[in-house]
Write a structure and sequence with these properties.
Length: 881
């Protein structure tokens, strides 16, 4: 699509408020992007404060699209903790997709927060999540899009840019772009950081004074206070000042306090990657898989108490309306009171049809009891991660799973009703040979043999190349070349061609760059800038990743990337040596040697302490003493009121409007939005029967994304209840821009809205790019045509449709036109089709037109009736609008 300037169009909308930043976003940007709901905010439970009433404003930036960032566990925790402080307002921002970014740059629109639509440059602090190495160029792009200098040294009156997250344990590739890093658990650190910023703002201190104060905080790394030094093949760093500690020690929480977790999490108005409640039941893993940096860096294991988890689950479900609860941990099935917790959750939520799900499970821990509680989400499949195909290699990587345990778990899953089992493997691990790859294939074929004992079962196999990560026993190991990785993938593919097996893998080039960035030093800063300037952005998405860009950047910067991926001597200084988790190098070296010797190390929670270096922490001491808390009974915590159920069922038909806040929400997202609002309002909706029950709610004709409406309808069946105030209860749970106008209650099932509505009325407000006379002539020309052929794209074909029979009336108005459209058996004209025929040469005008649905009618015997008029009424509720 050509840009607005290329088409010579002056964009002027008839809206007196279009000069405001938010209106600019809604009017000039969102009509032109594929998923505008990413950028509208307006979530249920969004925290609203007055920016003028706080001392410190913090923007939390996740360097990926909204759907991914809103699914990240750490995001709502920091959002909740910071906003509990009365002097802080924490807001959210996400990386825009390519189409949105292009428009933002074209129209000089900086990256903004979703709470107040404030440009990020105006905040005091920009907190950036470091979750994945391929986010690095996206972070640079977001800084630039915000108008913040990319290099930290160039900033003056700009936000303090702070990074944190798993990838920050080797901060050096991004060190020149960050003012500071929070290393380790951030719950306490962000409160201290906010207090420091507040103090120095009130005192009028400058940027350097703030950074100096931050550097004195435990777990905070300020790269500007460290200088580069050459040490063998790497560039390492050392303190600039003699009194600065050489090592930054990670912050470690002794306990996961209940207050860290939000009682009312945000509920997005669009579907996200993990569209459910996620509750962290434990942090850390002591299994000791030698390839896993998360397992090392999130130590020690800290388990939360079952009564706290139950209370959080009840609060979260009541406040969000979700019907799925995910129990999250690096090793959920290792939670020592899992069965007790499942019993409590099932007792609490079974009546309300809330299902329980898990991330990937250890085959040895997948028991019939766990399977029973996860039945409600079988449709998504169950994930098992054997990681390697032979016992020899599982010994090397310290993976305890036995082949017999995996096959037993698969059989249990299929027998309990799952149709899909997902298997995760890693290739290229230290000491791997082709015999191990043959073992991988043989293991998958054995799983397939189990699947064939059942009908309709499938297997997904995911293969990822091994990447040696910092702070793991394999941090000294080499990484397979791209050619060798490709050969191994092809070998596996050649033997797994069965129809019931779906094989996927990460590309060798992607793994190569991830490895370079994971073990890189400060020299890579120049490479990242070069890649970003050549278009590198959102590179975690395969369609945006370009290996050629990195090749060109390495060559331009005179850097050989292969030096970062070879094996190293155990005494070789490493770029991340100044960052300490607390796990000693002696322990990591010992694990490396045991890997070469094919020796396993038992989990310290189920054996003895392995002296990793963290014994000084209370949780480790409790683990060593086997200090396991006793389970609690359900009556020890206050219970959320369950949904009352009565014998009598009645139907309601609701009439509601969708305002500008909701114009970019799709029809499917509106379905989910209402289902969750009904749950939050505790309205006793009747559910369908069957395996996956759903509320009996049916909507009228869908509204196209980008439109507002005065005429939206839905039918629902509910149980009667003495205190049921449907309108008041439901309206309170709906987001801004969604307002109930009226409702009717009937005893018998009304005819479906889709079957009875046969006429719709729309009004389109057009920009000033066309004169009224020209628009009038265009309407007259259209009405004189006997046919109007438009193309409609289906998944695999394009249809030719004549929309002329559906156009009942088309008339000029003061600021555009009105359309009355006929609906025949659900088929009708679409407003964008009429706009495209009226303005064939101006795509931007078609997309920017403001379309409002004014009415939906039932035409019968020459009379026009609304959907509320055609059903017998027992009672009519109307809002005072």
């Amino acid at each position: 699509m050509k840009s607005l300037s290329e088409q010579g169009i002056l964009y002027i909308v008839k809206n007196t408020e279009s000069s405001t930043f938010k209106n600019k976003v809604f009017d000039r940007l969102l009509p032109f992007v594929q998923k505008p709901g990413r950028y509208t905010g307006n979530e249920v439970n969004m925290i609203r404060k007055s920016p003028n009433a706080v001392d410190v404003r913090i923007a939390l930036l996740f360097p990926d699209v909204y759907e991914v960032g809103m699914s990240y566990m750490g995001y709502p925790i920091l959002y909740h903790i910071l906003n509990k402080l009365d002097y802080v307002y924490a807001e959210r921002a996400f990386a825009p997709w390519n189409d949105m970014e292009s428009l933002m740059r074209e129209q000089d629109t900086p990256l903004f927060s979703l709470e107040t639509f404030t440009p990020l440059k105006e905040f005091d602090v920009l907190g950036v999540t470091f979750q994945y190495e391929l986010h690095y160029t996206t972070i640079l792009n977001c800084l630039d899009l915000s108008g913040i200098p990319v290099y930290a040294k160039d900033r003056e009156n700009d936000p303090i840019v702070v990074g944190g997250g798993l990838s920050s344990f080797n901060p050096e590739p991004m060190a020149e772009f960050m003012d500071a890093f929070v290393i380790g658990d951030g719950e306490e650190a962000v409160v201290r950081l906010a207090a420091t910023i507040r103090q120095f703002k009130q005192q009028g201190n400058g940027r350097q004074a703030i950074l100096s104060a931050l550097s004195e905080m435990s777990g905070v790394y300020v790269p500007a206070f460290f200088k580069k030094e050459k040490s063998g093949p790497f560039v390492t760093v050392s303190p600039v000042q003699p009194n600065t500690p050489k090592t930054v020690k990670a912050r470690i929480l002794d306990r996961l306090d209940f207050d860290y977790y939000p009682d009312a999490p945000l509920v997005p108005v669009i579907q996200t990657t993990h569209d459910r409640i996620s509750i962290e039941i434990a942090r850390g893993c002591s299994r000791g898989c030698r390839f896993c940096n998360a397992g090392m860096l999130y130590r020690p294991v800290r388990e939360r108490r079952t009564e706290e988890l139950l209370q959080q689950a009840k609060q979260n479900i009541a406040a969000t309306g979700y019907d799925e609860l995910s129990l999250v941990s690096l090793s959920t099935s290792d939670y020592r009171q899992l069965h007790e917790l499942l019993d409590l959750l099932n007792t609490e939520f079974e009546q309300n049809k809330v299902s329980i799900s898990f991330p990937s499970l250890r085959p040895e821990s997948f028991t019939p009891q766990v399977a029973k509680y996860a039945r409600g989400v079988r449709k998504s499949g169950i994930t098992l991660a054997p990681e390697a195909g032979t016992q020899r290699l599982r010994n090397v990587i310290n993976k305890a799973t036995l082949e017999s345990e995996l096959l037993r778990a698969v059989d249990l899953a299929f027998s309990e009703g799952w149709n899909l089992v997902k298997l995760y493997f890693m290739i290229g691990q230290p000491t791997e040979t082709d015999k191990d790859l043959d073992g991988l294939v043989d293991l998958v074929l054995k799983v397939l043999a189990v699947a064939r004992q059942y009908k309709g079962k499938r297997i997904n196999v995911s293969v990822s190349p091994f990447v040696p990560k910092p702070h793991t026993p394999f941090q000294w190991s080499d990484q397979d070349s791209m050619q060798e990785t490709r050969r191994k993938i092809e070998l596996i593919c050649s033997r797994l061609r069965q129809s019931k097996i779906k094989l996927s893998w990460r590309e060798p080039e992607t793994a190569f760059i991830e490895g370079v960035l994971a073990r890189g030093d400060r020299r890579l800063a120049e490479v990242l800038v070069q890649v970003w300037k050549q278009g590198g952005n959102l590179e975690g998405w395969s369609e945006n990743f370009s290996f050629a860009r990195y090749q060109q950047a390495f060559e331009a910067c005179g850097i050989n990337p292969h030096i970062y991926l070879r094996d190293y001597d155990l005494d070789q200084p490493l770029p991340w040596d100044h960052i300490s988790k607390g796990i000693t190098k002696a322990f990591l070296k010992g694990e490396y040697r045991k890997a070469v010797a094919e020796q396993q190390t038992p989990d310290c929670r189920f054996s003895s302490c392995k002296q990793c270096g963290l014994m000084q922490h209370p949780e480790c001491r409790q683990t060593a003493a086997q200090n396991i808390s006793t389970p609690v009974s359900l009556n020890q915590t206050d219970s959320v009121r369950t949904v009352p159920v009565y014998d009598e069922k009645v139907y309601y038909r609701l009439h509601y409007r969708r305002g500008s806040e909701m114009r970019f929400v799709s029809h499917l997202d509106m379905l989910r939005l209402f289902e969750r609002a009904l749950r939050r309002a505790q309205i006793p909706v009747v559910f369908t029967e069957g395996y996956n029950p759903h509320p009996k709610v049916a909507f009228g004709p869908p509204l196209s994304v980008g439109m507002t409406s005065e005429a939206e309808y839905l039918d629902m069946q509910v149980y009667t209840a003495p205190d049921l105030d449907l309108l008041a209860g439901l309206q309170e749970q709906l987001p801004a821009g969604c307002e109930i106008i009226a409702s009717k209650q009937v005893q018998t099932k009304p005819r479906a809205l889709s079957a009875i509505i046969n006429k719709a009325q729309y009004r389109a407000r057009i920009t000033k790019q066309y004169t009224k006379e020209r628009l009038s002539n265009g309407i007259e020309d259209l009405l004189n045509k006997e046919s109007m052929i438009v193309q409609r794209n289906r998944k695999k074909k394009t249809l030719q449709v004549d929309i002329r029979p559906f156009i009942n009336r088309l008339e000029l108005t003061d600021d555009g036109f009105s359309l009355t459209a006929d609906i025949h058996q659900g088929k009708t004209v679409r407003m964008n089709e009429v706009l495209s025929l009226l303005f064939p040469e101006h795509d931007t005008l078609v997309q920017s037109a403001h379309v409002h649905r004014e009415a939906l009618w039932i035409e019968s015997d020459g009379h026009l009736l609304t959907p509320l008029d055609v059903i017998p009424s027992l009672q009519l509720h109307e809002q005072n609008m």
